Q: What sequence folds into this?
């Protein structure tokens, strides 16, 4: 019965994720419209969307692992998600540092 519960949980999570993606289509459209103002923003908006997707997928897999009773797998998934988010956010940090350097040169 535990196996069936895990499969049902995974199926429900996938269904809810699909519904959430449909409701977020307006937000994504707004972000793409916003990105037309600058060539750099397209890259950074794409990075932010990837980070959000990794966070959601990590949370779902961690919760499914927890429901299945695999707490060690849950911790590993959270760690891998965090590491992936940090690696994806490096371009954002680099751009932030570039902006700070430009501001310091002007002042």
A:
């Amino acid at each position: 019965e535990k196996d069936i519960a895990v499969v049902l949980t995974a199926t429900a999570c996938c269904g809810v994720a699909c519904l959430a993606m449909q409701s977020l289509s307006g937000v994504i459209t707004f972000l793409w419209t916003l990105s037309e103002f600058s060539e750099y923003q397209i890259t950074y908006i794409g990075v932010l969307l990837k980070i959000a997707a990794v966070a959601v997928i990590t949370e779902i897999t961690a919760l499914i692992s927890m429901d299945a009773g695999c707490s060690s797998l849950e911790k590993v998934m959270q760690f891998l998600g965090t590491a992936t988010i940090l690696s994806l956010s490096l371009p954002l940090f680099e751009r932030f540092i570039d902006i700070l350097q430009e501001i310091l040169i002007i002042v």
About this structure: The mean pLDDT is 82. Helices lie at 2-23, 25-35, 39-67, 71-88, 90-106. The longest helix spans residues 39-67.
